[in-house]
């Protein structure tokens, strides 16, 4: 039976009681951190009962489970999320209120687990939330990085990376499970042992080993008593090695094992859509893949004898190519541990694995040097060689005589292991993350594979969880929606359509915009406290928050701000609605241009914010350390959402959906899921500009785009570009932004210029932006547009996405929790 949160009164007593037993303190003496820990235990108590009940139902019902394999789970803080899902948020808030404590301050004590970079990791977290809410049996499998995504400090306008030591103090939501430890082996060699029956045994020797220990985190469903598990793996040395012991047989091996274990799960690679071919990264991949498969198989074999029926109970979904070793490792275990032959093992594997692609950016396609791969994983490499050999034969059989094609598609070629090729060869499903993205995969980037296996390809448009990104992040709007249309939307977002009946009702629109204003005040206060910049909540809040990447074109946004500033300076009487341009973005630590764009935004902010002559018509704010916890408040406060990637480059985007859910109006390109937002909204409620993906792809193919021509034809662009290198925004060092100028024009060398068509789309962006300015002046017109966005957001719930994965790929049954 589902256990529910106690009443406000009981919660109050429990919190006081826990503070006493945990910290030996009267409540009045407790710190905010201690109160947070007490609250976490009060909530945990309920969560754990439901977790136990869920696990019992697993055993009784023996359902098929999905294992969501991901190097990243950007789960964000759990206290608030769990209180929402256990339906106890208001009760805890009231209890704390009675005790004279603000719940926000308590929630703020929790470290924000940042075990991911951005979109891909946050998607994994939304999926887990939806799986539990829809009552589907699921495990998340990932890594317990000791240091997650770095914390960002801005100093003198530059990004500084500070390590994120989120495990410094005990994390109250994780549970170490030493009873599910497994060994993972690296390096060494393979010995062949001929068996009397004519077969060969492959024996892995001379390896280094670590022990993988899982930490389980509860994943709560909304109001249903379901609690799934996110297992994140940590590494420890196989034997605790004692330096003072002379009896140790192999001293140097013991040292190696210990160092291996120490480094393995230390830190998340802070790259987004760009790979870094570091050996440690490959080790991390194999480590969590091997451990997760071992745990999944152990669980299966506890209740089933026939390993051949594994696909009836288990599916591994690979979140991008990062866990592609799942394919070869599953083959290895089936053959070397369970004694199956190749064909039997391949039959099972290819019915158990599915792959999601998240990018078409060529620099993000994962490839590993064969020598590194072979040295690190000698037995796995042998298996990859055999997968490759058979796969190439299959290509030849289907396309006789086309050796070019074989070379293009091979898993092993050019001295590399091509992870996407292996993932596609073995998976029974290959999906993109938005309709446009999937079409581009089929017709352009993975066209060869599509021709070979058209039946494998399918689309699963991304989604987001409304529980975190509306109920938790924007409780005022959430309560208002409940008042208007009831609670159905919480687990069925399509019901937001019912808001249609209020889009022409002025009173409702007034209420709706009053909530937006409140949320803008909340963010303004945050900005004042964190940035020392005063912003006017009555100005338009125009927001671009996401990882910093040239394809996402933060540069286009800030160049446009520079242009608007020029316009206002030249024409002070000009009709311009005061606007606050808000940015938030982390740049990968080694990505020079990205870091320089952050510096540019901050320098432009410094100049414009201090120019008294423009009457505060423009403010520019760079929010430091953009992350899940402050994101919730930022989405809630946005009027305009900037989704301006070069068409064809953003696989889906999910921030776009979070803004829409919170009643912001999008200015964007026909890229990723923006295309589907446009379809849901109709042209009147979204501002589209710029080239289409077909146009971009054609320019790339024909190599016929010259940014210098564009500049010469547009004096606004000329002026803005001049200001980039004349010291206007960097008096001490006019050359500071030269690399950005060069990246756009590149008059010196032969490298390609303006790869992301910033200048090409500039005029169209400016024109479209003027329409936004016009529209905002008409209060009710704007309010209606914003509310239409909320009303049409239904499709973009991760509940819908997960249901599609279940129907088309995973074929799971709901767990019965009665
Ligand atoms: C790979 C190898 C070595 C080091 C790092 C990486 C690496 C890490 C993270 C490569 C890529 C990523 C992240 C990619 C990502 O976040 N992609 C985004 O996925 C979202 C969810 O599908 C989409 O909405 C975004 O459009 C897409 O950019």
TrEMBL record:
The modification N6-(pyridoxal phosphate)lysine is found at residue 658. Its EC number is 2.4.1.1. One of its GO terms (molecular function) is pyridoxal phosphate binding. Transmembrane segments: none annotated. InterPro entries: Glycg_phsphrylas, Glyco_trans_35, Pyridoxal_P_attach_site. The keyword Transit peptide does not apply. One of its GO terms (cellular component) is cytoplasm. GO terms for biological process: glycogen catabolic process. The keyword Transferase applies. It catalyses: [(1->4)-alpha-D-glucosyl](n) + phosphate = [(1->4)-alpha-D-glucosyl](n-1) + alpha-D-glucose 1-phosphate. Its cofactor is pyridoxal 5'-phosphate. Keywords: Carbohydrate metabolism, Glycosyltransferase, Pyridoxal phosphate, Transferase. PANTHER family: GLYCOGEN PHOSPHORYLASE, GLYCOGEN PHOSPHORYLASE, LIVER FORM. Belongs to the glycogen phosphorylase family. Phosphorylase is an important allosteric enzyme in carbohydrate metabolism. Enzymes from different sources differ in their regulatory mechanisms and in their natural substrates. However, all known phosphorylases share catalytic and structural properties. Allosteric enzyme that catalyzes the rate-limiting step in glycogen catabolism, the phosphorolytic cleavage of glycogen to produce glucose-1-phosphate, and plays a central role in maintaining cellular and organismal glucose homeostasis. This is Alpha-1,4 glucan phosphorylase. It comes from Pseudobutyrivibrio ruminis.
């Amino acid at each position: 039976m589902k256990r529910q949160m106690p009443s406000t009164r009981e919660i109050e007593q429990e919190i006081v009681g826990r503070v006493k037993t945990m910290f030996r303190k009267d409540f009045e003496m407790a710190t905010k951190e201690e109160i947070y820990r007490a609250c976490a235990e009060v909530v945990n108590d309920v969560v754990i009962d439901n977790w136990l009940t869920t696990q019992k139902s697993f055993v009784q019902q023996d359902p098929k489970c999905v294992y969501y394999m991901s190097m990243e789970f950007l789960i964000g803080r759990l206290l608030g999320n769990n209180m929402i899902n256990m339906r106890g948020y208001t009760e805890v808030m009231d209890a704390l209120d009675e005790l004279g404590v603000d719940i926000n301050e308590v929630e703020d004590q929790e470290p924000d687990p940042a075990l991911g970079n951005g979109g891909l990791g946050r998607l994994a977290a939304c999926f887990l939330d939806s799986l539990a809410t829809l009552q589907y049996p699921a495990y998340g499998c990932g890594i317990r990085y000791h240091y997650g995504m770095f914390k960002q400090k801005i100093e003198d306008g530059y990004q500084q990376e500070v390590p994120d030591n989120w495990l410094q103090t005990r994390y109250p939501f994780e549970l170490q499970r030493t009873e599910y430890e497994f060994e993972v082996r690296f390096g060494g060699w393979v010995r062949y042992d001929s068996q009397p029956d004519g077969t060969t045994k492959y024996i892995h020797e001379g390896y280094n080993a670590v022990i993988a220990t899982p930490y389980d985190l509860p994943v709560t469903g909304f109001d249903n008593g379901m609690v799934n598990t996110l297992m994140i793996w940590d590494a420890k040395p196989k034997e605790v090695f004692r330096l003072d012991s002379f009896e140790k047989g192999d001293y140097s091996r013991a040292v190696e094992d210990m160092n291996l274990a120490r480094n393995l799960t230390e830190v998340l690679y802070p790259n987004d859509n760009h790979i870094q071919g570091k050996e440690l990264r490959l080790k991390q991949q194999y480590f969590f893949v091997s451990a997760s498969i071992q745990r999944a198989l152990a669980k299966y074999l506890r209740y089933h004898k026939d390993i051949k029926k594994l696909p009836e109970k288990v599916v591994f979904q690979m979140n991008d190519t990062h866990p592609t070793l799942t394919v070869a490792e599953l083959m290895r275990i089936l053959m070397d541990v369970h004694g199956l032959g190749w064909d039997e093992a391949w039959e099972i594997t290819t019915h158990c694995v599915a792959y999601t692609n998240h990018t078409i950016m060529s620099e993000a396609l994962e490839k590993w040097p064969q020598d590194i791969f072979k040295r690190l994983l000698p037995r796995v490499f042998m298996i990859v060689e055999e997968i490759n050999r058979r796969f190439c034969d299959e290509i030849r059989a289907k396309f006789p005589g086309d050796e070019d094609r074989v070379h293009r598609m091979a898993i092993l070629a050019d001295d590399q292991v091509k992870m996407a090729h292996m993932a596609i060869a073995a998976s029974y499903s290959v999906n993109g993350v938005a309709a446009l993205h999937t079409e581009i995969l089929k017709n352009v980037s993975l066209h060869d594979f599509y021709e070979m296996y058209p039946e494998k390809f399918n689309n699963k448009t991304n989604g987001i969880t409304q529980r975190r990104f509306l109920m938790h992040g924007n409780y005022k709007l959430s309560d208002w929606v409940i008042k208007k249309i009831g609670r159905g939307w919480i687990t069925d977002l399509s019901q937001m359509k019912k808001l249609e009946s209020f889009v022409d009702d002025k009173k409702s629109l007034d209420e709706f915009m009053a909530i937006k204003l409140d949320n803008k005040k909340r963010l303004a206060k945050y900005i004042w406290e964190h940035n020392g910049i005063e912003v006017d909540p009555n100005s338009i809040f125009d927001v671009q928050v996401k990882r910093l990447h040239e394809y996402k074109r933060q540069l286009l946004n800030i160049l446009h701000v520079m242009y608007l500033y020029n316009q206002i300076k030249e024409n002070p009487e000009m009709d311009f609605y005061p606007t606050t341009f808000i940015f938030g973005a982390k740049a990968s630590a080694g990505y020079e241009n990205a870091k320089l764009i952050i510096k540019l935004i901050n320098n432009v902010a410094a100049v414009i914010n201090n120019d008294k002559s423009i009457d505060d018509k423009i403010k520019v704010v760079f929010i430091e350390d953009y992350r899940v916890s402050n994101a919730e408040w930022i989405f809630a406060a946005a009027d305009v959402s900037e989704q301006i990637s070069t068409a064809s480059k953003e696989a889906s985007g999910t921030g776009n959906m979070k803004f829409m859910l919170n009643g912001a109006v999008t200015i964007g390109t026909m890229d990723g899921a923006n295309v589907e937002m446009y379809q849901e909204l109709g042209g009147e409620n979204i501002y589209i500009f710029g080239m289409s993906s077909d146009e971009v792809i054609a320019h790339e193919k024909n190599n016929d785009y010259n940014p210098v021509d564009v500049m010469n034809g547009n004096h606004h662009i000329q002026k803005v570009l001049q200001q980039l290198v004349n010291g206007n925004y960097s008096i001490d060092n006019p050359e500071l932004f030269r690399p950005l100028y060069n990246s756009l024009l590149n008059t010196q060398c032969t490298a390609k210029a303006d790869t992301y068509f910033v200048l090409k789309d500039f005029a169209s962006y400016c024109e479209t932006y003027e329409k936004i300015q016009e529209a905002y002046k008409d209060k009710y017109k704007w309010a209606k547009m914003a509310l239409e966005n909320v009303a049409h957001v239904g499709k973009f719930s991760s509940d819908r996405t997960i249901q599609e994965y279940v129907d088309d790929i995973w074929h799971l049954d709901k767990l019965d929790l009665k």
